[in-house]
Write the structure tokens for this entry.
Amino acid sequence: MPKIIDHDKRKGEILVHALKVFAEHGYADTSLSMIAKACGLSRPTIYQYFRDKEEVFHFAVKKVTGEMFTQYVSIAFRMDKPVSLRLKEICADIIMKGYANREVLTALADVMVQRKREGGDFSDIIMRRTVKLNILFKRMLRYGIDGGEFRNFSVDDVSAQLFTLLESIAFHMALLDNFDPKASIRLIHLFIDNLSQ
């Protein structure tokens, strides 16, 4: 009887191994053959799931951001805490998840630099992966204003500032050995506290 393969499970397993290879060797020096070897699979088997290393990496970013967004929606619409505390909780979780996966962030920075050298731009991919979170932040900020918790401000501008701050923190996290996640969380908390009435 032929072995039944759970393709979604295998794709997830390939992803776990691929992220380790990206973290260890960097994006530029990683090949699909290396990923296949780390998975204990042949290259033709890997090609059944991903056409190249870029697709593996994009799938990884999509999977991680999708899972995070689902978690953040549940936090955002829990009405047992003020909006400011919910925003702080989401931002702190983003920072701590990033810190726990610094190697992946470094690989992402590696991809971005390589794409830039090749004349490409990575901003469209980041924008697509973060648009839902940006909309969620805007809704939360609007709830905070409407509920009297926050002063009146441009929701679009403040959301953009919050994203820029988180992106800056992510790059520091990926590139600086002395990165302190607690200091970054305090900075985000200070930013959010300054939105209050």
